[in-house]
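This entry is listed below:
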Amino acid sequence: MVLNYIWIALILLAVIMGCVQCFVFGQTDVFNDILNSTFGSAKNGFEISLGLTGVLSLWLGIMKIGEKAGVIAQMSRVVSPFFTRIFPELPKGHPAFGSMLMNISATMLGIDNAATPLGLQAMRELQESNQDKEKASNSMIMFLVLVTSGLTLVPVSIMTYRAQLGAANPADVFLPILLATYFAAMAGLISVAIAQKINLLDRVVVGTLLGLTAFVGLVIFAAMHFPQEQVTLWSSVLAAVLLLGVILWFVIAGMVHRINVYDAFIDGAKEGFKTAVGIIPYLIAILVAVGMFRASGAMELLVSGLGWLFALIGLNTDFVPALPTALMRPLSGSGARGLMVDAMVQYGADSFVGRLVSILQGSTDTTFYILAVYFGSVNIKQTRYAVVCGLIADFAGILSAILLGYLFFH
């Protein structure tokens, strides 16, 4: 329901803004821009879905091998003590635990092409335990809010962009990005826990979160004491080893348990193809609304208004040129990435704005894209409070990013 209202609001604001620009300011081409954005966004949505088809088929095929070989069940039992406390609806050893663990692990390592298929597999498994097939369960909401917070240990893609655009030390944003995305994840977890009355003071939960905090601290320590080139190299190697290791592990486990590995892969790949086709309408819907909103000039007007308001109350406004990236991040990953690159080109990769847009890009994930794709893959129509909690995580990540940007680079 909330996605419905947001979708309608984006389209109405785009049309209203188009009318203002055309009839008040005489910019008669604005309607052509809005119309062209609808066709372009629809095409992009289909192309993204088409690109996901191969990746989904591959990873859901691999997951099917792991499922039949019993590996997913083993992983589920390992994480059950923690997951059964933050997903109290699910029984111990639920098959979704293994998929969620792999999705979160892939996201933390910045392996987006593997994270999405694993997350969609988790949603399918969560839907099997869902009593109301059109209404998001508590477990679905908790999982998706954790996904939208986008906890990432090593933002390889952002450091790569910074290197290409001439940053003296592309990894200088590593620490603030890690801290910002960590705060976003904690805010998302706490907001959902409050809504679902989950006890986060349980000793298993506290112990796990303290362990995660210690691990994040270890990563920070390593990043601060080794050259950027080594950090980037190690993270890339670790990601590759993880992916290849998972594939090899599942195939060997399948051979040991004497299952037909090839047939299992084909069964999973077929499910991946069906899933990719099923999310096309949901993806096109959100991308078209966002495209119209951008093309109408509503984004620029919103940023200008916020800049005027911040100046009025006496705040430092050096961060305002980075706001387009912050505002676009929950709506469109590719749009936010383009705005980040534009800002670094205009102001310089090592400028305050250039560094701040990098932190903002890494502080959280694309909430509306994720909710549309993940919920759409299992035909959920009532998202309940998922959008609200996702936006709380986004706000925490964006606010943390701005404050950390001032702390580290201003």
In short: The chain has a mean pLDDT of 86. The radius of gyration is 22 Å. Residues 58 and 269 are 6 Å apart (CA to CA). Residues 30-69 form the longest helix (40 residues).
